Amino acid sequence: MERMKSIGTEIKWGIIFVVMTLLWMVMEKLGGFYSALIQYHPIVTNFIAIPAILVFVLALRDKKIKDYNGQMTYKQGFICGAIITAIVTVISPLTQLIVSSVIAPEYFPNIIAYSVQTGKMTLQEANDYFNLTNYIVQGLFGAPVMGIITTAIVAIFIRTKTPPLENE
Would you say the pTM of this structure is higher than 0.70? Predict the structure, then answer.
C-alpha cells in the first residue's frame, strides 16, 4: 500500500495526460482535421506537444510540492516523469482504440484516401501504414521516447537549484 501511495501523484498525472490526449483528439475532429481539413492534420497534430509539456511541468511541480516538500532533485523529477511515461505508454493502446473507434472512426479511411489521391502513397502503402495496429505499435514506441525526452528536459527546470556556496 505504501508503494501505491508513493506513486499516487504519477498515476493521477498519467490519467490526466491520457484525458488531455483524448480531448486534443476531440478538438482535432471538431476542427475538421480528420475530414475536410485532413491535409493540415500532420501539422496541427504536432501542436499537442504544447499541452503535453505543460502536463509534465504541472505533474513534476505537483510531485515536488506535495511529495517532496518543495525540494526535488533532478533524479527524483526524472523518476517521476519516467513513471508517468510508463503509465501513459501502458494505457496508449486503449487510448488509440478509443480515438480510432469512438472519437474519429473516419480518420483512417479519410487519410488513406487523401494519401492515395495526392500521390503520397499507393493504396497498399496507405493501408499498411494507416491502421489501428500500426498506430498502437507507434504509440508503444513513441510514447516512451517522447515522454523520456520531455521528462529529461522538464526535470532540469523543476528540480530544486542548490544555493551557491557563500565562498563563491
Answer: yes
